[in-house]
């Protein structure tokens, strides 16, 4: 670049601007946050797959045994239904097991599933501590706290997401609501709820793992049996979170995905808004 | 052109502005702070991105390899992995995790902490969860409990009348929790194992009891003796009973007549039915379910 330019241009640049135009970047995520974020993928997958295998040994949702199949498990009913209605699965060897062989490690392996579940559970707690440390060290925790205006702003975002596909189809302009914060209200609600769900999963996990030594913890969730129900439904929080999370990250684009791996974002304009308004 | 305007112009204008803003207003503790923006050479940004993506990719591959290493063989076979991935290293690693969990359970145990007791109205049905077939009641008439590993060096045999007349009977309504996840509240009565330990003290170096039932059967009805390790600290817990009665009635064969271990601070699988022998030993004895991939201590 420099040798193609006339000498007078070079002298001009040294007097006012730096030689190479830089990119303005902001550090969005502390590296501990990034690492623990991605470690959650295998750990949560391991917890869910082994968890459903454990669930198989004594399902929460049961009905009177079906006279023809002898099955009493609602989850197994779903497998039976899938095998009966999905083409190509009519001759599946064991329809009641379909859900468990496809959504878990498999049925009839409680011992193996428990070992993996404990392993992943300890890793999950360690990883949660790393995440918390990253939030504190990077100051990122402030961006996750709910605000008084969140309910209204969440509705605005909801309206935006609902209208977006129609606006695209009608080729109309559909403006993203403006926020002067790192996350919009819906994101904040999601990113605040998931760590809370993580804490509750750990607490209910301990409550059903040690219902005698930690009987006060089990009692806090309504007793041993109710704590199992909590633990089961908390799993669905992650599943229901991950689907829109992944879709929206890809919809939002490369910069957002990269920022969770590299940490940098080149969308520095938004931080200027923050800087100017404060 | 546009890019240059975005990249270079605000950087020179912004840096002092951030400073002045923070100097003018002291920020609230919970208030969101602006993300510090810095100027970076595109080359450096590209280099860092490439490096971090490579590290990230290596991490993803490592996670995949870890999953292949740790997942049960049945699961891997179903996913189309033809090779047997079971290895001694995998067993060792998973057992290590299990051991850590057992150590945590042992650290949580307290000899003075009682498990919650319930009222009669909270009693729930308790199914017969014999691992194999339920034994034929013929064994009950000649039943005896044998104690080994005693300080006296003798082997003692006691029948159910001995036990019930020599020791006071305690009643408790507690929850039995199965490793499978279900649980049941029942009223149990029997003598305290602690009282038996006092009457027939074990050898001084004993730290464990091996509790076994020789009448256990496997699923097809063949003899399959059941044996289980119990640490003496738990054996001395005041709610650890040698139960003779279930919900006010003498134990039925389903529930381990005439004598079963009731240890509510352990999983149900440690609550051996139809006990025939207790041996006190110094080293941790074998355990039926630990040999089948479950934990050893099983404290809950």
Question: What does this molecule look like?
Answer:
The complex is a heterodimer of chains A (278) and B (300). Chain A has 278 residues and is mostly helical. Chain A is built from eleven helices and two strands; from the N terminus they run H-E-H-H-H-H-H-H-H-H-H-E-H. In chain A, strands 1-2 form a two-stranded antiparallel ribbon. With 300 residues, chain B is α+β, with helices and mostly antiparallel strands.
Features:
A: 278 residues; mainly alpha; two-stranded antiparallel sheet; 11 helices; 2 strands; disordered N terminus; B: 300 residues; alpha+beta; Sulfite Oxidase, Chain A, domain 2; 5-stranded antiparallel sheet
Concise summary:
The complex is a heterodimer of chains A (278) and B (300). Chain A has 278 residues and is mostly helical.
Query: Mean pLDDT of chain B, nearest integer?
Result: 89
How many beta-strand runs of chain A? 2
Instruction: Write down the CATH class of the domain at 116-292 in chain B.
Output: Alpha Beta
Query: Largest beta sheet of chain B, briefly?
Result: 5 strands, mixed
Percent of residues in β-strands of chain B: 15-25%
| Overall shape of chain A | globular
Supply Rg of chain A: 25 Å
Q: Report Rg of chain B.
A: 31 Å
* Quaternary state of the chains: heterodimer
> Low-confidence segments of chain B, ≥5 residues, pLDDT <50?
1-23
List the helices and strands and how they pair.
The complex is a heterodimer of chains A (278) and B (300).
Chain A: H1 7-16, E1 23-27, H2 31-57, H3 74-85, H4 98-103, H5 110-138, H6 150-169, H7 185-209, H8 215-220, H9 224-252, H10 254-261, E2 264-265, H11 269-277
Antiparallel strand pairs in A: 1-2
Helix pairs in contact in A: 2-5, 6-7, 7-9
Chain B: H1 2-24, E1 37-40, H2 42-70, H3 73-78, H4 88-108, E2 145-148, E3 156-158, H5 160-166, E4 170-177, E5 183-192, H6 193-199, E6 208-213, E7 226-231, H7 232-235, E8 241-246, E9 249-250, E10 260-262, E11 277-281
Parallel strand pairs in B: 2-11
Antiparallel strand pairs in B: 2-3, 4-5, 5-8, 6-7, 6-11, 8-9, 8-10
